[in-house]
Amino acid sequence: MARITSGVGVSHVPAIGRAIDTGQTQTPYWKPLFDGFEFSRAWEEAEKPDVIFLVYNDHATAFSLDFIPTFAIGCADSFEVADEGFGPRPVPRVEGCPDLAWHIASSVIQQDFDLTVVNKMDVDHGLTVPMSLMFGQPERWPCRVIPFAVNVVLYPVPSGRRCYALGKAIRRAIESFDEDLNVQIWGTGGMSHQLQGPRAGLINQPWDQAFLRDIAVDPLRLAAIPPEEYIREAGSEGIELVMWLIMRGALNEKVEVLHQHYRVPASNTAVGHIILKQA
Amino acid sequence: MSKPRPYDDVPGTTVFDERMSRKGYHLNQFCMSLMKPENRARFKADQRAYLAEWAMTDEQKQAVIDRDYNGLLSLGGNIYFLAKIFACDGLSFQYAASTMTGMSEEDYLSMMLSGGRSPEGNRSKSEWK
């Protein structure tokens, strides 16, 4: 049977992708950030996951204002790397896992979460930057990926409570798939940041640190945070952190923190990272 | 009038809800079109001619020409859509964010390097009076 072995929380700032793609990772500005992912890359090499269930948000790339699905699951064989306005990132195409993705879609919809099934979708920095941080710059990505896009752009966005419950449904779906697969679930985005308006540049380190602590030990506190608290305390784009709750909901009640990292700034953003192993 | 929202009190922040999205549909779809290289080339060659193809208000078109990002936010633009304009100009998110704060890019960068803008004094519109 397929099993979820661990969860990863990781930010997905576009400037991180640019730093990797242009060979800037060892500059004084970027080195402290990338040093915090050395453990993670070595860990992934040892773990050799078969599939990543990758929760991220599309940043007006695959979804314009024509269609805005709240939860969308990528069921295609593969996903092209998007041109976000300055040419696609020079990273490998993302190979999907359609058998498992379709199984999850069917199972989760029957558990009353109305997913949108996507058969064609380019993936943006929200998905590719975490892949680069966790796997470096390989010729081909070492595993298959199920992209799971969450709307955190148009309000209202799904609540933390709903995201946490959805994680549980996704876990039930994965564990009922009849193939022996090592599956990781990643929640991406955040931490505190605001990219717009006169208040841009907001960073709330104590709030972020409490979130990093409680994603392991008290996810129910986090699941109860209303959207306006994210906006007020973690900046208008800090709301992306609800996606970490999908990851957390899919794990055991008790988890072991294998690694964590926090760095300010990456461009406009506080970067957070955590690896949680099923305990 | 639509009902007030719990986040309306957060200063210097435009939350992209249905009020803004309905205002900004054509503006944001114009931004989206700049993801195609051929459209970027046409836009750069003649901005007004390219904008004329879109059902945007004159105010929205002028704010695009002026690269007035705070203006565009108030006219229904969403930051991830507006990002296609500054990406097309070859400018970074950090640069664009600095222009919205009224700071120089240098001052904004040094604020970020020293830990970013604190939430203290920035939680409620009453603190900005």
Describe the structure.
The complex is a heterodimer of chains A (279) and B (129). The radius of gyration of chain A is 17 Å and the shape is globular. The two termini of chain A are 18 Å apart. Chain A is α/β, with parallel strands linked by helices and 279 residues long. The relative contact order of chain A is 0.23. Chain A has a single domain (3-278), classed as Protocatechuate 4,5-dioxygenase, Chain B (3-Layer(aba) Sandwich), CATH 3.40.830.10. The longest helix of chain A has 16 residues, at 160-175. Chain A has 10 helices and 10 strands. Chain B has 129 residues and is mostly helical. The longest helix of chain B has 16 residues, at 18-33. Chain B has a domain at 16-89: Dioxygenase LigAB, LigA subunit (Protocatechuate 4,5-dioxygenase, Chain A), CATH 1.10.700.10. Chain B has helices at residues 18-33, 37-45, 47-52, 58-65, 69-74, 79-88, 93-101, 105-113. In chain B, helix 1 runs parallel beside helix 6 and helix 7 crosses helix 8 (105-113). Helices cover 57% and strands 0% of the residues of chain B. At the A-B interface, helix 9 of A face helix 1, helix 5, helix 6, helix 7 and helix 8 of B.
Structural descriptors:
A: alpha/beta; Protocatechuate 4,5-dioxygenase, Chain B; two-stranded antiparallel sheet; 10 strands; globular; B: 129 residues; mainly alpha; Protocatechuate 4,5-dioxygenase, Chain A; 8 helices; 57% helix
Indicate the topology:
The complex is a heterodimer of chains A (279) and B (129).
Chain A: E1 3-10, H1 14-21, H2 31-35, H3 38-47, E2 51-56, E3 71-74, E4 78-79, E5 94-95, H4 98-110, E6 116-118, H5 125-135, E7 144-150, H6 160-175, E8 182-188, H7 205-217, H8 219-223, H9 227-234, H10 242-249, E9 255-266, E10 269-278
Parallel strand pairs in A: 1-8, 2-7, 2-8, 3-6
Antiparallel strand pairs in A: 1-10, 3-7, 4-5, 9-10
Chain B: H1 18-33, H2 37-45, H3 47-52, H4 58-65, H5 69-74, H6 79-88, H7 93-101, H8 105-113
Helix pairs in contact in B: 1-6, 7-8
